[in-house]
Every structure is written in C-alpha cells, then in structure tokens.
C-alpha cells in the first residue's frame, strides 16, 4: 500500500511504468459518464503502437492491478475494452487516504527567489482598468509562488503617502517604502555607470531640434547594444533612450530588491522541485519578472536594456517579461479610472444582490459581503482568461450577476453554502441532535457511492496541489525574453469546482434525519465536503479573497 497523500502525477507515472513506457499512454477520465466505468484509460491507438497487435501481455496486466508505492492510488481492476485498457481504482481506499490528509502541504522556507515588477504601479493615482490586469496578475502570482515555497519581492514599493485606496479596495497587499539612503546610493552608482558606458552619449542640442525635457540626463543607444550582444526578442524599433532620474530610480529599486533576495540567505531548495524556475534562474538565487500590459511592453524593454548596460551581471541577464493582453472597455461614456470601475461594479453587485435577496442585502452586515463579491467579480473578470489574450469589460448592468456560473460571485456563493452547512451542523451538535464528527480514521468511506462524490474527489481534491503547482510555473522561454504563465488555471478550477459542487449539493441531502443507522453516510459526506471547503479556502487565498460565512 502506498503511503502518504496520493497524487495524480505519481499514479500516472506508476501506470506508465507498469506498461513499460516512461510517459503519455494513460488518460485520466473527468466526465461523469466515463467515470461510471473507469478512472484511467490507455487508448486503443496508443496500445496498438506500444504492443504487437495492441494485445497487452498478461504479466503487464498483472503489474497494473498490483500498483503501489508512495503517492500511488490502488487499482481495483484492469480490463480490455473496445476503447482501450480501462482501470478502476479502489475508491473507498482513495477516499480514506485523501480525506485523511491535508489538502495542500505546507510550503518549505524559500530556496528560490523571484522579483515581480509591476510598472503599472509607478503612477498609482492614474490607474485605469488596463493597469489592473497586470497588477492583479502580479498579486495572484506572488501568492501562488509563496504557496510553493518560493520567496517573492514586489517592486515598486509605494511611498506611504501615495493613494492606496484602489489597492485597499481590491485587497492587494503591496509593500511600502519611504526611499531611504540605500536607494539614493544605488541611484548615484547608476549615474557613475552611465559615465563609464560606451553606449551613452551626451545630450547635445541639434540645431533647430525641439528642446529636450529638463529631466533628461543623457542618451543611451539601445539598438547598437542589442546588435552587439546578439539579444533576441526585443522590439526592432528600440533605438535611442532618453535617460531620466525617474528611470534610474526604477532600476535602483529593482537592484535593491535583488540585493534583498541575495542577502536573505536562502536555504536548500523546497521539496517542490520547481524545475522550470530553477533552470530559468541558471544557478542564480534570484530571477526578475516584469509583469506588464502590452501597452507598457516597449517602455519596459527600454528599461530592461538600460539595466543590462549599466549593471551587466547575471541577474540582469535573467530578466523576463510576462505580457498581459489588452483590456477593451465597452460602452464607456468617457475614459474610466480604476476607482470608478470598482465603484461601478460595486453598485451593480449591490443592485444584483437586492434583486436576489431583497431587503436583506440592504442590511449593514451586507456591506462587507458586497465588497467581497465585488472584488471577486473583478478578479475573476481579469484573471480567468489566459494573460496573453485580450479581455473585454462590459460596463452594462447586465454584465454583473449573482446567478451566472462563470463569475466570482458564483464561486463565493458556493463557498458560503459550505460555511452555512457546517454552521448548521455545529449548532445541531451543540443542541444534541447529531454527535460530533469522528476522526477521519474512524469513518466508513464505502458509504460514498453517489457519482458526484467521486467526481469531487477525483477531479478536484486529488489534483488540487498539482493545479497550484502548474499555475505557479514560470517556464523558461524557448528564445527571447517573453514568458507565459498558467495563472488562469485557479479561477477556472474554482468555477468548475463550484458547478460540480452546486450540482451535487442541490441533489443530495447532507444533514438527514438523526437516526444512528444514517450517521455513517452523513459523517463521510461531511468529511468530504470539509475537504472541499479547505480547497475552496486555499484557492481563494491565492486571490486574496476571504471565504464568506453568509450570502
């Protein structure tokens, strides 16, 4: 019998190993229809390529049925079908092992560090909806990386006096800074580096040319540097950059963040391998990711090259750009700021809540609920689409609803339903109606026979740790400076989980009559849904969304 929490990846590796193949033969089923008959399938076409005539030898079949090892789910049966080789797991045993383990392992101390730079926050008072996308993506990615034991530094730190209202409203946790002598020293060192660089030219005024801005320090020839260094992935229109004090300050802040990473004395790498990020780091303990909108990409490439010129170290060569697609706003009467966008969505959420819940939604206690639903609506609107794709914001009232299954409000609603269930159960225990929930080791999981219960466990509880890992991956680019991330996976996971949980919860009565012969099934279902609740909370935490206790 395998020890510890079972995992999807470990089970697939064991299944592939049993067929003598290193990867890729088996498919995990996810649809309710197929899960009635099987959990994994080695398709007929793959078997025909792997074995003469597609016939799986008896000893190989025996190896599949006797699978075991750390993290591997036990097999109940394996049989040839027209579709291929079908495997069904020992489901009560899978329930026992999964529901008796933490849903997400605790992260190790940081061993790898990442600097996440969000240029949109250079001017926080001028934020528009298109700036919110890279900001919220940076905030979400930071949480995902920390959950995997990766250290994160966020840049730029904001002076205390800067307007933070929109960040507070959106529950963005961002560091503060008052500048300080270290930053001034770093700016001074960069100015000295300017004086030594062969790429720098003085700002001489050409006859008849327009006057240069007063804050320009010098010119830097970027194109010749790109050509000399053989750099790829940069905009071909990059040419001469006018260097200002503000640009040097931005670079100095990045240098300070890298320095903080290197003096944090990172310990051994966490158990989470994070192979992609480690290869991305190429032996360094810190990498830099600029999270930018497509409109800011050109300016950030200029800064990237300026930093490489002035500080030709290993860390500047590790700069990568994570670019967000455009944010198209429909029906704007005039350009809309981030604060106006938040207030508009809040007003729409309030109206939608009044329509659904009546006068209840006008109670003061609902203010926090509506604020949270608004943040959820905005975060899912911005983050449930792959970051490189365009998104469209519809500002009409009809675009916000408490009913739609694709929204953040729908996810929060189902999270609140779980809170209500356990609150109701706890009150019933206090009143003596039900006994307390026994330890997981004492529960009879063979009572869980409803197909929705296996769907929740197999499609959500089992792969959840791997969903968080994949969402946090920063794979190195094949060439150039752009990288992509799969951060949309968490929102999509939560939406699908909410839909399947809602379907199950509407169909199955959890807290039945208080008869002792019904308690085994009720306890097993409560243990299952308690773990579903933990997964909701862990996933929402990566979005800085608190679970709602009422709705």
TrEMBL record:
Xref: InterPro entries: DALR_anticod-bd (IPR008909), DALRD3 (IPR037380), Rossmann-like_a/b/a_fold (IPR014729), tRNAsynth_Ia_anticodon-bd (IPR009080)
Entries under SUPFAM superfamilies matching the protein: Anticodon-binding domain of a subclass of class I aminoacyl-tRNA synthetases
Cross-referenced Gene3D superfamilies: HUPs, Isoleucyl-tRNA Synthetase, Domain 1
Gene Ontology biological-process entries: arginyl-tRNA aminoacylation; tRNA C3-cytosine methylation
Transmembrane feature ranges: none
One Pfam family recorded for the sequence: DALR_1
Domain DALR anticodon binding span(s) in chain numbering: 411-551
GO terms of molecular function: arginine-tRNA ligase activity; ATP binding; tRNA binding
PANTHER family per the UniProt record, alphabetical: DALR ANTICODON-BINDING DOMAIN-CONTAINING PROTEIN 3 (PTHR16043:SF1), DALRD3 PROTEIN (PTHR16043)
Protein name: DALD3 protein
Organism: Uria aalge (Common mure)
């Amino acid at each position: 019998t395998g020890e510890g929490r079972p995992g999807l990846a470990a089970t697939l590796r064991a299944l592939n190993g049993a067929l003598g193949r290193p990867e890729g033969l088996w498919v995990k089923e996810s649809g309710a229809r197929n899960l009635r008959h099987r959990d994994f399938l080695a398709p007929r076409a793959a078997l025909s390529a792997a074995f003469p005539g597609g016939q799986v030898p008896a000893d190989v079949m025996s190896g599949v049925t006797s699978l075991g090892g750390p993290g591997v789910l036990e097999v109940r049966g394996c049989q040839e079908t027209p579709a291929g080789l079908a495997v069904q797991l020992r489901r009560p045993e899978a329930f026992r092992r999964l529901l008796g383990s933490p849903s997400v392992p605790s992260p190790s101390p940081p061993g790898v560090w990442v600097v996440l730079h969000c240029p949109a926050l250079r001017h926080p008072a001028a934020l528009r909806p298109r700036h919110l996308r890279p900001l919220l993506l940076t905030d979400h990615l930071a949480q995902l990386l920390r959950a995997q034991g990766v250290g994160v530094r966020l840049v730029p730190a904001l002076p205390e006096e800067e307007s933070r209202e929109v960040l507070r409203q959106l529950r963005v946790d961002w560091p503060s800074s008052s500048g300080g002598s270290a930053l001034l020293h770093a700016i001074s060192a960069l100015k000295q580096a300017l004086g030594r660089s062969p790429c720098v030219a003085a700002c001489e005024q050409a006859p008849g040319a327009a006057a240069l801005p007063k804050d320009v320090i010098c010119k830097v020839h970027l194109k010749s540097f790109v050509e000399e260094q053989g750099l790829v992935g940069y905009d071909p229109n990059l040419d001469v950059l006018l260097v200002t004090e503000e640009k040097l300050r931005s670079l100095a802040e990045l240098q300070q963040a890298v320095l903080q990473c290197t003096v944090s004395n990172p310990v051994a790498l966490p158990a989470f391998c994070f192979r992609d990020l480690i290869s991305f780091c190429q032996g360094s303990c810190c990498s830099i990711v600029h999270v930018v909108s497509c409109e800011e990409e050109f300016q950030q490439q200029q800064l990237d090259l300026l930093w490489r010129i002035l500080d030709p170290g290993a860390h500047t060569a590790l700069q990568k750009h994570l670019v967000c697609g455009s944010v198209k706003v429909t029906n704007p009467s005039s350009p809309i700021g981030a604060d106006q966008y938040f207030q508009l969505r809040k007003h729409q959420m309030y109206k939608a809540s009044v329509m659904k819940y009546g006068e209840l939604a006008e109670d003061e206690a609902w203010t926090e609920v509506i604020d949270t639903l608004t943040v959820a609506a905005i975060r899912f609107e911005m983050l449930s689409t792959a970051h490189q794709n365009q998104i469209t914001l519809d500002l009409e009232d009809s675009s916000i609803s408490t009913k739609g299954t694709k929204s953040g409000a729908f996810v929060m609603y189902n999270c609140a339903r779980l809170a209500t269930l356990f609150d109701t159960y706890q009150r019933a225990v206090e009143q003596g109606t039900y006994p307390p929930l026994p330890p997981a080791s004492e529960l009879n999981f063979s009572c869980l026979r409803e197909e929705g219960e296996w769907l929740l466990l197999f499609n959500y509880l089992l792969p959840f740790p791997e969903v968080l890992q994949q969402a946090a991956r920063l794979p190195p680019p094949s060439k150039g400076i752009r990288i992509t991330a799969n951060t949309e996976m968490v929102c999509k996971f939560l939406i699908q989980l909410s839909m399947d949980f809602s379907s199950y919860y509407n169909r199955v009565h959890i807290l039945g009559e208080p008869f002792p012969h019904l308690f085994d099934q009720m306890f097993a279902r409560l243990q299952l849904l308690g773990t579903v609740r933990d997964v909701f909370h862990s996933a929402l935490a990566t979005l800085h969304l608190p679970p709602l206790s009422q709705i």
